[in-house]
Amino acid sequence: MSTIKQFQVTFDCAEPERVARFWCEVLGYVVPPPPAGFATWDDFDRSQPAEEQGSWFACTDPSGVGPRLFFQRVPEGKVAKNRVHLDVRVATGLVGEERLAKLEAECTRLIALGAVRVRLLYDGHDACIVMQDIEGNEFCLD
Q1: If you placed Cys at 68, which of 2, 8, 106, 112 could pair as Cys (CB 3.0 to 4.6 Å)?
Q2: Maximal C-alpha separation, the chain
């Protein structure tokens, strides 16, 4: 039986670089170096056929632990709830008011980056905040 060594999470979006850079800020990810022979990603992008320019972008966990995130341009907009979403784990191990305070602080930071708060789910002990990224993809602060 084979073991999966690596995987990436792929997002369909309208503006791959913009969405990728948002997620870099959310997760502390980085944009990898451009392909060999190119000084910048802009240089690489300009070398591509016009219809492929800006069609994808990626970001990676600088520690190498988390999955690569890949963003690909698609012509259609988002029309339904995500079937898969990311949980951004910022309050692991915390409960009650301490957990809620940590989630609210991160929510405030992400709103400044362009995220949208959808709703708080809180039962007095456990909590998460449902949010949307800059193109309306749902994710949770957990």
Answers
A1: 8
A2: 55
Residue with tokens 């995130």: 69
E strand intervals along 50-135: 56-59, 68-73, 86-88, 116-122, 127-132
Continuous H helices in 4-141: 16-27, 41-46, 96-112
Q: 10 Å Cβ neighbour count for 123?
A: 6
Residues 88, 113 contacting (CB under 8 angstroms):
no
The residue ranges of every structural domain in the chain are 8-73, 86-141
Q: How far apart are the first and last CA of the chain?
A: 33
Q: Is the dihedral of CA 73, 75, 80, 83 positive or negative?
A: negative
User: Which spans in 28-139 are helix H?
Assistant: 41-46, 96-112
Q: What are 19-58's pLDDT values in tens digits? A: 999 999 999 999 999 999 999 999 999 999 999 999 999 9
Of all residues in the chain, what percent are helix, strand and coil, respectively (each to 5)? 25, 25, 45
pTM for the complete prediction? 0.87
Take residue 126 and report the two structure tokens written for it: 């456990």
